[in-house]
Design brief:
Layout lengths: L1 E3 L2 E3 L1 E4 L2 E8 L9 H13 L1 E6 L16 H15 L5 E5 L1 H13 L3 E5 L5 H6 L5 H10 L1 E4 L8 E4 H7 L15 E6 L7 H10 L5 E6 L9 H14 L5
Helix pairs in contact: 2-3
Length: 243
């Protein structure tokens, strides 16, 4: 556990060699999801350092999800890296975690990024821009809209604070240079982060050092056996085996 802004942040740390690999989960996901477990198994087999954690309001960490914003979760990621993986880590970000990884890169100085269905700017491009006027009005007037989720029996609170804070972190309107190699894994059948959205990110990244793997039948989770193999291969491509 780490103490962040007076709250306990749940962490799992596997000691090992090489640049530490840090897992950045998605919106309402947690550090025990199948992709994180697959990377932990890889790290155990290869003797690699691996760090994972739950953002505030997620999984085993303290706090209420509805009280948090992108700024809070970015701060969580930066604290975890500074405390547990300070040596130019490899950031592996899934969905929202991809956006967090890109935002954190400016301060963290990673040695590589692996992004799974990166939901860059999702609060604006994939939420607000897609909402009908009635939902926008509810978010602004009531402060929250409860969005039905196919991943949870409970709806997801989309708050006015989340939308407004997200605008402080928008990236797709300018060039993005994380200063390290980037490998993006993207499903073309993803209903939540369309592959065309991932291509908007690719257009903003540098001309060199960027690899994109498109999986035509791939969904948003990319958690099937073949998908997990691709994830491990992508991480190994940036984090080669130690002696």
């Amino acid at each position: 556990m780490l103490n962040v802004r007076g709250r306990r942040l749940a962490t799992l740390v596997r000691p090992g060699a090489g640049p530490p690999v840090v897992w950045l989960g998605g919106f309402r996901s947690d550090m025990r999801a199948s992709k994180a477990e697959a990377l932990d198994a890889w790290a155990a087999a290869r003797g690699r350092a691996f760090v994972r954690f739950d953002y505030t309001g997620h999984g085993e960490s303290d706090g209420a999800f509805a009280d948090c914003t992108i700024s809070d979760w970015l701060a969580d990621a930066e604290v975890v890296v500074a405390a547990l993986a300070p040596e130019r880590p490899i950031l592996v970000g899934s969905s929202m975690g991809g956006w967090i990884a890109l935002l954190a890169a400016a301060r963290v100085k990673p040695s590589g990024l692996v992004l799974i269905a990166p939901a860059t700017d999702f609060t604006e491009a994939l939420m607000w821009a897609q909402f009908p006027e009635a939902i926008r009005r509810q978010v602004m007037e009531d402060g929250v809209w409860q969005r039905e989720s196919q991943y949870s029996p409970e709806p997801t609170p989309v708050t006015r604070a989340l939308i407004e804070d997200g605008r402080r972190h928008l990236m797709l309107d300018r060039p993005i240079d994380p200063g390290c190699p980037v490998h993006i894994l993207q499903g073309m059948a993803d209903p939540d982060v369309p592959w065309t959205h991932a291509m908007r990110l690719v257009e903003r990244l540098p001309e060199t050092g960027v690899v994109v793997t498109l999986i035509k039948e791939g969904d948003h989770r990319l958690s099937g056996p073949a998908d997990l193999d691709r994830l491990v291969a992508a991480v190994e491509g940036i984090a080669p085996r130690t002696a």
